[in-house]
Structures are given as structure tokens and as C-alpha cells.
Amino acid sequence: MLSRWRAALIGVLALAAALAAGHLVAGFVGVNASPYLAVGNGAIDLTPVWLKDFAVRTFGTYDKLVLLSGMAVVMVVVAAVAGLLSRRTPVPGLVVITGFGLVGLAAVYARPDLDAVALLAPLASLVTGAGTFAFLHRLDVAPDTSRRTVLLAGVAAGAGLAGLGGQLLAGRRDAASSREAVGRLVPARTAPMIPADADFAKLGTPPFLTRNDRFYRVDTALTVPQVRAEDWSLRLHGLVDREIRYRYADIRNRPLVERTITMTCVSNEVGGTYVSTANFVGVDLADLLDEAGVRPGAEQLFSSSVDGWTSGSPIAAVMDSSRGAMLAIGMNGEPLPIEHGFPARLVIPGLYGYVSATKWVTDLEVTTWAARQAYWLKRGWGREAPIKTQSRIDTPKGFETVSSGKVRVTGIAWAQHTGIAKVELRMDNGPWREAMLSAEVNVETWRMWWLEFDVAPGGHQVVCRATDKRGYTQTETRAGTVPDGATGWHSIAFTAR
Ligand SMILES: Nc1nc2c(c(=O)[nH]1)N[C@H]1C(S)=C(S)[C@@H](COP(=O)(O)O)O[C@H]1N2
Ligand SMILES: [Mo]
User: Any stretches that span the bilayer, and where are they (predicted)?
Assistant: First the structure.
């Protein structure tokens, strides 16, 4: 009979060997075929809306790291238990490992972005895991301990090397070098200069343009899709007179336009950070659709990403020239960052990202609402999702302590495609007072504001609300982010000393 810790060790080593073998094969057939990542991606797609929302709110950009770490802990525990159950005979451990293997196979099989050859990765995991377990088990019942130790260490080292090899192979095909080769994108029509009084960054607001590495990021991709520009193409089809396929050079060689646009995520809570602004460079989506010739009856532009994620945008919004929907390839003077959709993405001003901003986009289908249902629509989010008028207090920070006397409150407000008319603040249930607004860049972008109050020592609460150019004032009624965006006033408490 095996000692307890040896039995557990054998379980964990077999798991490591299995994952490493799968990862190595995935290095050849596509990184997302790695069974570990495929299970994680599957878990994300199966996650109920409330839990996804909770994860995004609680862990922010780290939600995926939390998921992967959680999975690792669960797997190590189960593998150790499988080993412990196998002290006499390897059968229980083999059953558990086969179960793991089948979950991996199912997860890879279910991925819309993977083909049959990808199944080789989880198969390699299954065979290696079971084989390693049986082998180590037989070995461990044998008496020669020094040979045994060497072999155990060998398995551990082999697993490490195979995993690393998979990582390197996957990296060989990454998109970073392709992105570098694109070089600078020079728009034929640049966006108007951002005036100096477009933000109050010196007073506490964010800068008007968000740096690429500070731009909020939300997507379902566990590993950032790596698409090389030279491999990329965009298929435009469906209810059109002629199907067209665009290559990267086709897009890049067109006269490029640049537009300043504020994007917002539907998962942004009142006071949240999922709102950012950039200069996007690309072409008019409407021009591409005109080339294809949109047929009568078209309602929806159904876009797909290389990783299988999908989005449905109203054709009317895409074709509305006052809105300027884009196929974007650049952001703030650079090619799109890989995590923001390199080589190309959609940006449709005024609509929440999940119905307007497909990253790594490879397919555009002109269709009806009845024919296709996009990723988040199937999961209970709204079909029409115009961005709601909102405002946020940036300083003071919640629960900050400031000096009493003159206290300056600063923040931002947005009402894309309508424009902000005014922002009002109320201190400690006093009268509403109108804040100073920054210069308006265009109605598709946020505006900054500030206002000074005379504040006595003690605790205080300040509330903001925006009114847009259609005359709508933000409702006080709190609504959650599901199904089409949060409402309510942002308020913060602070102390004056
Ligand atoms: N391929 C893909 N594109 C996507 C998503 C996604 O999950 N996958 N998420 C969308 C959502 S919900 C938002 S809010 C925006 C965010 O874009 P950003 O990460 O560049 O800020 O991308 C959209 N495009
Ligand atoms: Mo979003």
C-alpha cells in the first residue's frame, strides 16, 4: 500500500503531466485548445449573468486570473484526493483522471473557434495523465526507492518543460510582431484638436483622452486572441447584393478617418470605471456596407469575433452618418492594442460596448433580429442598448478626509450621441447648484465638470446628476446593470477636518 503523501503526490504529478502535455500540443494546434484554458473559457460562457456581473465588479480586470487560480486549486485538490483513494489500486485515480480528460475534451469540442484538430490537445492530456498515473503507481509499489525518486523528479521536470514549450510555441505565433510591423497609421482626416479646457485633469478629473494602457477592458477572452494582420480578413455577407472580403491592407490603404469617442460598458455601475475615451482611426462602416449593398429588410449587423463572441447592432445606427460608426484599426495614434482588438474592431458611438464594439472582428453579417441572437442577448441582456446619461464624482474620493473651507468637487458626465447640457451638485441635501463644464469636444464624448463648496468641519455627502441636451435629467431611481445599464445618482461621503 502507498503512503498517504506519495499517493497524493502521484495524483498531482499525473495532473501536472496531463496539463503540460495538453498545453504543449496546444502550442501547435492553437493556444485555446489547451484543455485548462478551454475549460476556463467554457466556464465563462456558462457563467450566469449575475455571477459574471459580480466577478467583473469585484475583481475587475483580474476576474480571469481569479477564475484560473480557482480552477487550479480545485484541480490540485481533486487530483490529490484521487491519489489518496488509490493507495491500494490505481483504479479510482484512473477514473478521476479520465473524468478530467473528458471534461477537457468536451470543453475544447464546444469552443466555436476551434476545429477538430484541436481535440488532439485534450486527448494528449487524457492519455498522458492516465499513463503517468498508472506508471507512477506501479513504480511506487516497487521497492527500489532511489530509482523511484529520480523518476518522480523526472516526471515533474518533464511536465515543466512541456508546459514551457507549449507557451513558447504559442508565443511564436503571437500578434505583437505583426502589430509592430504595421507602423504608424496616418489618417487622411484627423480628429479636431482637443482644446486645453476639455478636461480639468489638474483639478482631479481624468485626462480627456485615456491612454491605451489605462483604457478599460472588458471581454470574455481568457487568453487575448492573437491575430496577425497578414492573416486577418473580414467577411461581409448576408442581406447584401454582393459579398465582400476585406484584407488588412484593403482597409489600411483606404483614406482613414479619426474620431474622438467615449466608450462605455453596460456593466458599469453608478460611479464605476468602465468608461474611457480615445481617438479611433479607421473607416466608416457605412461605406463598407454601401459597397456590399444592404438589401431591404436588414435590421441587424451581426458581428463575430475570431474567438466566437458575437454582437448585434441596429443597422440604423450603423448607417446613421451623424453617428460615424467605424471599423477601427487604430487607437490614439497606434495600431489597436492587441487586448483592444488588433487587427480590427467595431466602434459605434452611443451604444454600450456589447452591442457596438466587437474586438478581433472577422465576420459581419447583415441580417434580421429574428435570424441571429448575439452572445449577451442570449444571456438575458437587452437588444437595444443606447448608453444612458450618467455622471460620476472623481474627487474627493469616497471617505476621503479633506481640509474644511473651500472644497472643490470634480467629475465627469456623459450622454453619448446627445450631449451633456448641465451637471448639478447637491451638498448635504442643500439646493442643487450648477457645475462648471469643460469645453465640448463632440456629443459622442464625455465632459468634465467642477464646483467649489464652503464646507464646515465634519461629515458630508455630495451627489451629482446630469441633464442631457434632450432635456432628460438622470433619474434618482437606482437600477442595476442588467439588462441595459445602471441608473441612479452617484454620491460620495467625505470628511472635512
Ligand atoms: N470579441 C469580443 N469583443 C468585445 C467583447 C468581448 O467579450 N469579446 N466585449 C464587448 C464589451 S462588453 C465591451 S464594453 C467592449 C470593451 O472594449 P474595450 O475592452 O476595448 O474597452 O468590447 C466589446 N467587444
Ligand atoms: Mo461591456
Answer: 65-84, 91-110, 116-137, 149-170
